[in-house]
Amino acid sequence: MVSSSGKVSVLHEVSTPVTRLVSIVVPIYNEAANLSTLWDRLSAVLKALSCSWEVVFVDDGSSDGSLALLRELAAREPRVKVVELARNFGQHSAILAGFRQSRGDVVVTLDGDLQNPPEEIPRLLEAIEAGNDVVGGWRANRQDHAYRRFASRWHNRLTSLIVGVPMHDYGCMLRAYRRHIVETVVQCDEKAAFIPALAASFAKRVAEIPVAHDQRAAGESKYNLLGLAKLSLNLITGFSLAPVQFVSLLGIFIALIDGAFAGFLILHRLLYGPQQEGALWTLFAVLFLFVGFLFLALGLIGEYVGRIYQEVRHRPTYVVRDVHGGDRDRSEHR
Ligand code: UDP
Ligand code: MG
Questions:
Q1: CB-based contacts of 154: which residues, under 8 Å, 6+ apart?
Q2: DSSP states of 194-263 as a string?
Q3: DSSP character string of 286-298
Q4: Could you tell me if 23 and 107 are in contact, meaning their C-beta atoms sit under 8 angstroms apart?
Q5: Of 24, 25, 26, 29, which is best to mutate to test ligand 1, by the most ligand atoms within 8 angstroms of its C-beta?
Q6: Which of 92, 77, 103, 129 is nearest to 24 (CA)?
Q7: DSSP character string of 192-209
Q8: In whole angstroms, what is the distance from residue 104 CA to residue 182 CA?
């Protein structure tokens, strides 16, 4: 599913492979029960690749011994790097931390619970080699609760609309990104980032390929309904001014209605002469409508001012305590 534009450059890029080193970034929050199978399957896939590879595990404040297991792995496998976050910062911040520590020409993200089969990685890389900047997995046969699938359908429609890049599955974290996309996402250092949407918004060529999806191997999903709702709200306010624009349009609409209403009152007065209380009550109703509208507008403006405040005070999105194993040259001192 290569996008139709830029065919000449696609042919050129096919003949010169972009992937000399691939980085796999995996956020880990209390996945101790899954780590050994994950590593067995992932390493088997990576060893069969023709390019070099590294794996960056980001421990997002786990409390179940995941970190100790990851450190053991990093001690025996030099191509494994473990980024230890100071506490739980959330999946997308963890991926951002992993991006910053990665060095690959292509970076692949993967969930740590084996819902995304590592065996799909070569197909993602093929699609990158075909000239795409971002390749998203599309969980055609999604193994989640019905309510998650329903919410996700609407989430994807909304995201496609506000990002301007239509995709079936923004929520699938089995994705591949070229280095320049990763660098741009990292530079943004967004609070409350939604990485697939942010990356898609910087990409020239985006492809989506159907990938398998399994049940969670062990443990429970870290997202509840409130968490998902927060993610959607962040996405809307993070990517579009549509709510504020909607308020402006609503203002124009109300002004037009108000004009028509005033015209009606004038006409009524001309035809039937002055009435007693009728007009007064109607004006009260109009006034209250405006008060409600002003409150709504203030709330929305407040939302955006709040976001500016968050960006301006430059709080770090996450704090890396230490980096274990791998190449330490890129370790951060934030
Ligand atoms: N995750 C994380 N930090 C969090 C929540 C989740 O690093 O605060 C990781 C988690 O360990 C897993 C991936 O993000 O590797 C996806 O999480 P989960 O499977 O709970 O989400 P779901 O599949 O239900 O969307
Ligand atoms: Mg999962």
A1: none
A2: -HHHHHHHH-SSEEEEEE-----SSS--S--HHHHHHHHHHHHHHH--HHHHHHHHHHHHHHHHHHHHHH
A3: HHHHHHHHHHHHH
A4: yes
A5: 29
A6: 103
A7: T--HHHHHHHH-SSEEEE
A8: 10
More confident site: 294 or 194: 194
Distance of CA 102 to the CA centre of its chain: 18
Our CA angle for 50, 207, 239, nearest 5°, is 125
pLDDT per residue as tens digits for the range 44-77: 999 999 999 999 999 999 999 999 999 999 999 9
Residue type, 254: I
> Would you state the structure tokens that stand for residue 59, as one six-digit string?
């421990």
Count other C-beta atoms under 10 Å from residue 93's C-beta. Answer: 23
Q: What is the pLDDT of residue 300?
A: 75
CATH number, span 2-224+316-327: 3.90.550.10
d(CA 255, CA 265): 15
Determine whether the shortest distance from the Cβ of 28 to ligand 1 is under 6 A. yes
Tokens of 189: 């250092």
pLDDT value at position 13? 45
Closest ligand 1 atom to the C-alpha of 115?
23
In ligand 1, the atom with minimum distance to the C-alpha of 112 is 15
Q: What are phi and psi of 125, to 5 degrees?
A: -65, -35
Q: Delimit the domains of the chain by residue range.
A: 2-224+316-327, 242-313
